[in-house]
Amino acid sequence: MSNLNVLLGSMEMGVLISIFMFGLFNLQVFVYYRHYPNDPWAIRTLVSHLTVYLGRLDRL
């Protein structure tokens, strides 16, 4: 097995784990907005800004 195969395989696993974790994060945000609609606007705004920020980080 060449080094390239090992490198690409480990990169693929890293990308798949990253996609899975990002999906879990989005699920947590969705559940938060559904279960806590009466939270103060500052907290809800903070959650939405963090969601956008982390979404942009995931694209790097």
Structure description:
By secondary structure, the protein is mainly α. The protein is built from 2 helices and no strands. The protein has helices spanning 3-35, 41-58. The radius of gyration is 17 Å and the shape is elongated. The model has no long low-confidence stretch (mean pLDDT 88). Keywords: Membrane, Transmembrane, Transmembrane helix.
Q: How many domain regions?
A: 1
User: Largest sheet, if any?
Assistant: none
- Estimated radius of gyration: 17 Å
Number of helical elements? 2
Order of helices and strands: HH
Distance between the termini: 29 Å
Q: Which characteristics define this entry?
A:
60 residues, elongated
Summarize, please:
The chain crosses the membrane at residues 13-33. With 60 residues, this protein is mainly α.
Topology diagram in text:
Layout: H1 3-35, H2 41-58
Helix pairs in contact: 1-2
